[in-house]
């Protein structure tokens, strides 16, 4: 039913696939680049951030290349189906995004700096698509793990909307919601660090070319960001 629609549409909880109580696959124990465990519990002092910005292969690489990131893993989030498979998520019948979980040391890289990377690494105005990738699983999303993360995410969205509007872009469609009640289901082994295993593999990640000012007490949420500049990537 959903696959034949011209415009992707999220399923209702009643329409979503039921899923299963346990996953059909095993998640690798360690990150192929960073060498740290993929699945928690994580060391004390680290924080968790969840982002969705299109195909998770290229999105994950953006974050594992960032200093202060301890581990990353890809998975499915924001929908209804328990322990989904990749094929199920791509069917549009789970309601999930393709998400990246980022475990980071806030003494080295702040959540606000990760938000800046998030916004600049994709086009957050495209609804249920990212470039040529079309489907509800490619929508832009931030799932927050604390009130502080939620406030920072909201402030960054407002700040980025100002510079996007000034450069002629449309309204941001990114959903910002609490991670609580929206479990992160790790993806299959072959998706984890896909572009490390397949350096010439499909990436699909590309920004608007509009840069967000670095977070400070004088811009995000308090005044207009101070300029528009082409992003490096």
3D structure, described in words:
Residues 50-203 form the Peptide methionine sulphoxide reductase MsrA domain. This is Peptide methionine sulfoxide reductase MsrA. One of its GO terms (molecular function) is peptide-methionine (S)-S-oxide reductase activity. 21% of the residues lie in helices and 17% in strands. With 233 residues, the protein is an alpha+beta fold. The strands form 2 sheets. The chain has a 6-stranded mixed sheet, covered by helices on one side. Strand 6 (140-144), helix 4 (147-166) and strand 7 form a beta-alpha-beta unit. The chain is globular and about 45 Å long. Residues 1-5 and 222-233 have low confidence and may be disordered.
**Shape summary:** globular
The helix tally amounts to: 5
Query: What structural category characterises the helix and strand content?
Result: alpha+beta
The strand line-up of the biggest sheet is 7-6-1-3-2-8
Largest sheet: 6 strands, mixed
Oligomer: single chain
Task: Please provide the ordered H/E string of secondary-structure elements.
Answer: EHEHEHEEEHEEH
User: Gyration radius, to the nearest Å?
Assistant: 17 Å
Percent of residues in beta strands: 15-25%
Number of strands: 8
Helix fraction by DSSP (H/I, runs of at least 4): 10-25%
Q: Give the termini distance in whole angstroms.
A: 38 Å
Low-confidence stretches: 1-5, 222-233
Mean pLDDT: 91
Question: What labels describe this entry?
Answer:
single chain; about 230 residues; alpha+beta; 6-stranded mixed β-sheet; two-stranded antiparallel ribbon; 5 helices; about 20% helix; oxidoreductase
